[in-house]
Specification:
- The complex is a heterotrimer.
- Chain A contains 18 helices and 6 strands.
- By secondary structure, chain A is mostly helical.
- Chain A folds into 2 domains: 50 residues, no CATH class; 346 residues, Cytochrome-c3 Hydrogenase, chain B.
- In chain A, β5 and β6 form a beta hairpin.
- Chain B is of the alpha/beta class.
- Chain B has a single domain, classed as Rossmann fold (3-Layer(aba) Sandwich), CATH 3.40.50.
- Chain B is 33% helix and 13% strand.
- A 4-stranded parallel β-sheet of chain B has the order 3-4-5-6.
- In chain B, α1 packs antiparallel against α5 and α2 crosses α5.
- The longest helix of chain B is centred in the C-terminal third of the chain and has 17 residues.
- The termini of chain B are far apart.
- Chain C is of the alpha/beta class.
- Chain C has one domain: Beta Polymerase, domain 2.
- The longest helix of chain C is centred in the N-terminal third of the chain and has 14 residues.
- The chains are: A mainly alpha, B alpha/beta, C alpha/beta.
- At the B-C interface, loops of B face loops of C.
Chain lengths: 405, 188, 166
Amino acid sequence: MEAKQQVTDQLPPEEKQYSYLNLGPTHPATHGIFQNVLKMDGEIIVDAEPTIGYIHRAFEKLAERRPFYQITTLTDRMNYCSSPINNMGWHMTVEKLLNIEIPKRVQYLRVIIMELSRISDHIICNTIIGQDTGATTGFLYLFQMRERIYEIFEEICGARLTTNIGRIGGMERNFPKRAWEKIDAFMVDFPPALDEFTRLLERNRIFMDRTINCGSISAERALAYSFSGPNLRAAGVDYDVRVMNPYSSYEEFDFIIPVGTNGDTYDRFIVRQHEMLESMKIIRQALEKVKKEPEHIYQARVPEFVLPPKEEVYNNMEALIYQFKIVMGETDVPKGEVYHSVEGGNGELGFYLISDGGRTPFRLHFRRPCFIYYQAYPEMIKGTMLSDAILTMSSMNVIAGELDA
Amino acid sequence: MTTSQGSITSNVNIGEKPEGYEGAGFFATSLDKVVGMARANSIWPLPFATSCCGIEFMATMGSHYDLGRFGSERLSFSPRQADLLMVMGTIAKKMGPILRQVYEQMAEPRWVISVGACACSGGIFDTYSVLQGIDRIIPVDVYVPGCPPRPEQILDGILKIQHLVETESRRRRESPEYKAMLNTYGIE
Amino acid sequence: MEGTDQEKIISALKEKFEGEVLQVELLYDFLTITLKKDQIISIIRHLYDHPDTQFQYLTTLCGVHYPDLNQIAVMYQLHSLQKNYRIRLKIYLPVENPVTPTLTTVFPAANWLERETFDFFGVVFEGHPNLKRILNVEDMIIFPLRKEYPLEDQTREDKNDTMFGR
């Protein structure tokens, strides 16, 4: 690239001709719909202008119309590769507003679900990086493991992708026995499968040549652009919301934060690989801790805000009244402003909620990590070639649902 | 390996034979049936995946729910070479003209399958920025509801498309009714 | 956040900008400061550089429309990674003319966040390099997240509003 740069630099500026390439909204099915108009000097990219909004579904306006328990279905569809994390984040925000104390067992169950969905998100990202460099095998093999995670979610809540898992105040039902069996089987089967995928790509010479120094960003620029999550950790900053502002009993778990050095595509790939291993560690610890807690607890007992179990609703008068009041919105929601953030698959996913005492929020703003760090994309690809730009985009794990909300 | 009931090679049915007249070394049937069978078992889809249903499509393309065994192994991302436009996910009003352009670039015969509640009717997003169903701008052949539909449902939709492809008359695309239908969408 | 941290932040703020602070609240354990709108960028720059606070990470910024006050608030949320403080700054702008200087000189991350606030509420950020709509279609004339505009597209005819309680 340096030699070519010298040849084109020798031309006087007015003779340089740039061509414009439209990396249009209809990509191959993997990435999502956003558009980039690239100004190219031959094969080298000089400038890029992104356009987003092709899947703007007005979540923030829609949230002002939905009661608190219905907004969970909206949060599902933001980062749809790891929907349970979004759901849990929203539930924790509302619990902060309502001052509900969650029992320990529920927190451990939430940790298990969130780490499983983090693994499923990183599987998609890493296998797609492999596919974009030409190695489709990893995608096909590791997606089998994702099917196993989907089966676990199906046992717990009934849905595969848009899970709407849990309720405000806990879970809707206790985990069935088959869910525990499937989680245990997954813990045995996943490490060899991940190892197989790692051996395919991690020290593969072609992959390393493609991805090292491709789309790199320094730690200072990453912080200036408010990066978070694996992209920031690959640049060298160890900021993880689970460690800095722990929630849902993460402070009791023992895990490390993998950090890269260069901030390039290879570092992002390796950081996500190691995060999957750390998630496995956390799930193992959570499984141990759950065994020590009493088995019947799956939600907090705050009758004014948490829906009672269905058996009681059909048999008990007070439970019926509470159920009616909560669903019809007759409860006294406190007024206030609250912000809560969780470590999503892509970074700090935050919920800023203003409540005016009504049934629906007054204002709900989602702090979406993809939207904030995608701004740096033109800067990251300046001076690289077109194929590197594609790899950079896929390694940043830009999910269109979260970008546009 | 062989048993008296039949070996592993004799119980495999790759496809139904159309009606025809058979002899030594030849098989005569009507052109419609042969062309229909060939087209139905080799559809090249264009996955227009926008949101969550796109991830379920990726799962359908994976090895567990393999779409390739129905003949759709080769995905075409260029509309010029595609037969089936699979619209999966929410289409916002900003994306509408692009979807329309992609549809118009496809060559006849072309089919459209609308996967997911958002593509069928706007889904849960009854907002100012979401197109309430892609059948406002392009004609749709099969609707697959669900949010997101399970891979089995998507495969069911593709099987229905295969049935439509197999039984379609060769003259449908030049017929005045078809042209009138396209005119209602403003497509020439 | 502990009491001494809050005092440090408030005293760092009051060193130079005593008159700008309108209200200091602690909402759900989160320091929220309402300020006058004129010198917000210098205040944020001061908090960025001050050794006691070092708010060098922009978490988010958004707009809020208060129809009964007839004002649009812009909320900035900052985070100090070195000291692990979080702070929320709010300024209120009149609905008829919501104009405020841009934050992109301090944080490049504010670029698209301000475009989104402009798109949804119509807040004009002076000095922004590229202030146009980001999520909605380019030729939209209204600012949809203001409370007076409805959620649904009023021209659709296939959904029956009376049945769905809208």
